[in-house]
Automatic annotation (TrEMBL):
Residue sites binding ATP per the record: 10, 58, 86, 92, 103, 113
Broad class of where this protein is predominantly found: cytoplasm
Family: Belongs to the NDK family.
GO molecular function: ATP binding; metal ion binding; nucleoside diphosphate kinase activity
Protein name as catalogued: Nucleoside diphosphate kinase
Catalysed transformations (reactions): a 2'-deoxyribonucleoside 5'-diphosphate + ATP = a 2'-deoxyribonucleoside 5'-triphosphate + ADP; a ribonucleoside 5'-diphosphate + ATP = a ribonucleoside 5'-triphosphate + ADP
Gene: ndk
GO annotation, cellular component aspect: cytoplasm
Source taxon at top rank: Bacteria
HAMAP family per the UniProt record, alphabetical: NDP_kinase
Nucleoside diphosphate kinase-like domain ranges (all copies): 2-139
Function recorded in the entry: Major role in the synthesis of nucleoside triphosphates other than ATP. The ATP gamma phosphate is transferred to the NDP beta phosphate via a ping-pong mechanism, using a phosphorylated active-site intermediate.
CDD domains recorded: NDPk_I (cd04413)
Subunit structure: Homotetramer.
Length: 139
């Protein structure tokens, strides 16, 4: 089925001017960028987004990192977009990421790992709604 997923190009990547190179990987994989904006999150906004990780030891560090530099939030659309995006991103830890994936090529560490992607249809819907209104999604 055609799906939509929420993608974030993270501070470590925007800082190194990698937005275009990462978008090229998404587009080459057949994903269409149907919404996109560059924003600077506050720690509080990052905290709400990553609420499910609140009890994790890395939560504070994660929120501070996500607020440290601009991010590019985007909606990717395509056949099986959620799984396809996760394939293009590679494993969370760049040390485990397959060659050619975004994280293998660009991520600096498990925390500063260049991209985020929704992990399931329910989280994709919630994460898209956190950043975008329906009017901003242009398929
Ligand atoms: P993401 O897919 O955005 O979802 C949660 C994020 O937490 C993850 O990518 C990493 O950036 C971060 N994360 C996961 N594990 C660790 C860890 N052990 N230390 C620091 N950050 C982590």
């Amino acid at each position: 089925a055609v799906e939509r997923t929420l993608s974030i190009i993270k501070p470590d990547a925007t800082k190194r001017n990698l937005t275009g190179k990462i978008n090229a990987k998404f587009e080459d994989a057949g994903l269409r960028i149907v919404a996109q904006k560059r924003i600077k999150l506050t720690k509080e906004q990052a905290g709400v987004f990553y609420e499910v990780h609140k009890e994790r030891p890395f939560y504070d560090e994660l929120c501070a990192f996500m607020a440290s530099e601009p991010v590019v939030v985007q909606v990717l659309e395509g056949e099986g977009a959620i799984a396809k995006n996760r394939e293009v991103m590679g494993a969370t830890n760049p040390a485990d990421a397959a060659p050619g994936t975004v994280r293998a090529e660009f991520a600096e560490s498990v925390g500063e790992n260049s991209v985020h992607g929704s992990d399931a249809p329910e989280t994709a819907a919630a994460e898209i709604a956190y950043f975008f209104s329906g009017l901003e999604l242009v398929g």
